[in-house]
Amino acid sequence: MLVKRLQYLALMLGIVLAVPVVQASSDPAAEMKPAAAVPAPAKEIRSTADHGKFKELQKDFKSGPEVTQACLTCHTEAAKQIMKTKHWTWEFLNPESKQRLGKKNVINNFCTAVPSNYEFCTACHVGYGWKDSSFDFNKQENVDCLVCHDTTKTYRKLPGMAGHPPYQDTEFPPKSGKIVPAVNLKDVAQNIGKTSRATCGACHFNGGGGDAVKHGDLDSSLKDPKKYLDVHMAKDGLNFTCGTCHETDGHNIPGSRYTPIAKPKDANPHIRGKNDSDPVTCQSCHGNKPHPQALSRLNSHTDKLACQTCHIPEYARGGKPTKTLWDWSTAGKLDKDGKPFKTKDSGGHDAYDSRKGDFKYEANVIPEYIWFNGKVNYTLRETKLDPNQVIKVNSFEGSADDGKSKIWPVKVFHGKQPYDIGNNQLVVFHTYGKDDSALWSNFNWDKAIDYGMKEIGAEYSGKYAFVSTEMSWPITHMVAPKKDALACAQCHAPQTGVGRLDKVPGIYMPGRRANEWLNTAGWGLALLTLLGVLGHGGLRIYLARKGDQK
Amino acid sequence: MKKLVGGFLVGVIFTMVLALFMMPSLMFKEHVSPFGFEETVARIQHNIQKNPNGWSLSGLRDPGKAVQNDGGNVLPVMMIEACSTKYSAPILKTDDRRYLSILMPCKVSVYKKNDGKVYIGTMNAGLMGKMFGPLVGEIMGHVAADQKTFLEFDPNTPAPQIILPKAPSGGGAGGGAGGGC
Hints:
The structure holds 2 protein chains of 2 kinds.
Chain A: H1 2-25, H2 28-32, H3 64-74, H4 78-82, H5 86-89, E1 92-93, E2 100-101, H6 118-121, H7 146-149, E3 170-171, E4 179-180, H8 185-190, H9 197-204, H10 242-245, H11 283-286, H12 296-299, H13 307-311, E5 322-327, E6 342-344, E7 350-353, E8 357-362, E9 368-372, E10 376-378, E11 391-392, E12 394-396, E13 406-420, E14 425-426, H14 439-442, H15 445-455, E15 464-474, H16 516-549
Parallel strand pairs in A: 5-13, 11-15
Antiparallel strand pairs in A: 1-2, 3-4, 5-8, 6-7, 7-8, 9-13, 10-12, 13-14, 13-15
Chain B: H1 2-27, E1 28-32, H2 37-50, E2 55-61, H3 63-69, E3 77-84, H4 85-93, E4 106-112, E5 118-123, H5 125-130, H6 133-150
Antiparallel strand pairs in B: 1-5, 2-3, 3-4, 4-5
């Protein structure tokens, strides 16, 4: 009783004290104070160097390369380090398959290919001026330091500018009426810092031509994620940036889509900062037996299941639907006035665009599950294909019994794209450009393909058709809280009748994968036993009664 | 006599057990949608608006938002709320039936399950109405008939846009928009 009275008194006291505070804060005079009179909070500098005080950065820079030259006066090795990375070369030679990969060489089933579209695509290159195949990869001032190290969130590279930011106010998208202000290079250069979710996300969240389009587990909802979306990156959780796991070494960033680590080595959790070849894997922090003793049964799953399989139950969970289909074959339709048009789906996302064809989007997508041993094979431009089959742009190797594979969740992206029917090969086509051959300008496939193939010096028969394609993306971000990991029943005894791993070959799933013949034989034996018991009992009763009658 | 009473009791128990198991599937109906999640919501909303019996959308709730705010995940679920004063007014005017306002507005739930399919959940308004006498029974019979039209989809018509409520409908609360009961 006394406690309740004290609580009541405290509540009343709180209200009495709070009223003047509320009144003070709603004082109109306080609101009228001019913003300029409020002193700006002092910039907190945690680094030992304040770049705002550097003499080299006091200039009014006219271009990005000028800034880079200034950066290199102190960071003498930075450009050389960058030049060895895939972020610069857009090229990767797979040491095992010997396939020459990287954005420069691969044809995907989103925007398809970089060659002949450099000016547009290189908005996501860590360089300046890659507008055609003559780009100088050895010129150090072509490296763009600011795109990764900007902290002002004002630095933006626009498609169509060959990797340069806008140096003057620019209308973007063209004819949209929206103006992107010219970048203040001096301000950005004086405020550089570590990479952030925003800097990495500027490209990686927008892969495939827009927010959330490509990966499914990477989109702008990860800029400021809540705990439900990603326990590692949540601001009210561990607040990881991308660089916390993708820990760089001399500007080289670990984590590869071309040679992913499917089954990390048995290892105890390492200490951050220690040299580790696999810092991006879950195991590098959590080890191979991460579950506590009470849940030790789960540890017996870790040999065959990737952590992501249970801990990322769905992707695209941040409210940004991901693209699941892109059909280029329908591109080029024009409205009754002969102009390109767009239509929207029920959620307001593009369903059709004359420049690109038909799309489908989906949020909260349940992944597909496959065996994966880390080897990825690509259908390259020169690969001969069978147009009667769905072409796997990339195929993931793996099986239940190779000892190297785990079951992984993947996003499978479906597409339809042009191929050369004379040579049975995928084609490179010219989408963006101010010339007459670009598909987005004239909607003429013949010209666009002809231009693209000439650009790479490849033979083209002159005839094209469209082929169905698939591309897979391992799901590894958007780790849900542990209470939302897949429950046993979602694989073993699903209420919907469809288990998550039903389509994964080569596994026996208790509660799911019964042998029909064995089941029939077992139930048959049980039935026969029952019949035998009933028959025997019935006979005994019958004979006993018959005996009584006598 | 004993046999008669025993048989009667067995019959009662059997009926009760049967009712216990059958009740959920009798009171609620579940259908698989041929469309994606957002398209299903949008098509139902537009069907509701097309219905000539005075139906209007009164809300669109996302109960999953509250779970997200609490740091958890659930598969998508949206509740479409609709009301027709033609049916609600007679019930609300009768004092001894006003408690049935708890069933208003009429709800259609759209949700995804672990098999990846989109489902539509509705109440069996016809059957429920019969429990509350002839007036409510008759009204709910009409509601059930209208409800059926909400779920009749024409795949040849293009996907319409979702109708978003005027007020934000997060956290399982709010979401009121347009007309209603």
